[in-house]
Amino acid sequence: MGKSLAASTTIAIDNRRTAQQIKDAFSFVITIVIAFHGSGYKTFKEFYTLHVLPGWHEAFPNLVSYTRFVELMPWCLMLLCCFLHTCTGEITGISFIDSTPINVCHNCRAHSHKVFKGLVKWGKNSVGWHFGFKVHLIINDCGELLAFKLTPANVDDRKPVPDMTKHLIGKLFGDRGYISQQLFEELYERGLQLVTKSKKKMKNRLVKLIDKILLRKRAVIESVNDHLKNICQIEHSRHRSPFNFLVNLMAGLAAYTYLPKKPSIDIYPKDLPALPPAIF
Q: Which CATH class name applies to 91-257?
């Protein structure tokens, strides 16, 4: 009886140690992939072999080889998604929505691309045709992420809006691609007003001055997209696995939340005390 109790206790201790080792492994993988997206390196291999392996042994004494690290990355995808949801910003009542294409390869190689076969589609925007995915983003007036969603490139911008805005209130500003009477009514019933620019053939309608001002400030989300692609590097054509692509995307979004300066707007009146408060 005593031997069996001691054996079971030893197994329980070993299991706890194994669980802790797994947690430590996932934590250092998540930390390194997020750090890469804020490092300025163009490729993860260069960052890991030239920066992490030579200089980060004190912080991570159990570093593995580059090949082994790439094998571990897909296993932390779920934890990375959960962590990213904890990095979202504060709901201020003023939100901006937009989508940006994520190309997985050059258009001329789309017919032979097989890594994302069955997952990506052709899409078209004001710039032209692109082959890959589309990231839908919602930010507040401080440039903080509120919601995000990944879809194939051919999905209409209006389709994911109801799911992305379930927790939002106030006003949501978007471009002409979000014009929809049905979508407006659905969001308005939940306490969220969708504000968009009018198309040329639409009838004129009264719009509050503050709404016109904020519509002109909608370009702030374009700056966020630029930061995500050029600083946090959420887009490149070197993926060899859909799981590693998702890890790259989630880590890039997480790295953006740590940027010290984010694109933002100052909407609070300082030099207009004569205007009635109702305008704002």
A: alpha beta
